[in-house]
Amino acid sequence: MTEVAFHFGASDKWNYLCRLTRKAIAKGVRIQIHGPQSLLDRVDAKLWNFESTAFIAHCRHGDAFQERCAVVLADSVFTPRNGASWVLLNLAEEVPAGVEAFARVIEVVGLDEHDRQQARNRWREYTRRGLPIVRHDLTGRAD
Predict the structure, then answer these.
(1) In CATH, 3-137 is 3.30.565.10
(2) Model-level pTM greater than 0.90?
(3) Which residues contact 12 (CB under 8 A, 6 or more apart)?
(4) Fewer Cβ atoms within 10 A, N terminus or C terminus of the chain?
């Protein structure tokens, strides 16, 4: 069953997202980052410039080398061949179709009130679907 993890209160949502992504791929997990194109462009730039000495290798959905890429940016959720080794990091305002194909879904929620309200709506939808939810409170922690 898909587990959903909400990471609430990220003071720098984009920096936290990059750190979380780096940590996951270091453990051998593949990440599909899903969201609207405008946010994926922002994530793309952030992953390239996350650290001055390194970047987080990634590609776009549909790229020729997608099968070998640990981090895939996608504006529509695609079902991975082996869902057990993939995590979906959702940046969309809604719960995307197909989340049940993933072992885990991660939601990173910043301090913006609109972001928080959209996260509450997604929480209710995951609950309605009967998916277990884990809550990580980042309030007061450095991102």
Answers:
(1) no
(2) yes
(3) 110, 143
(4) N
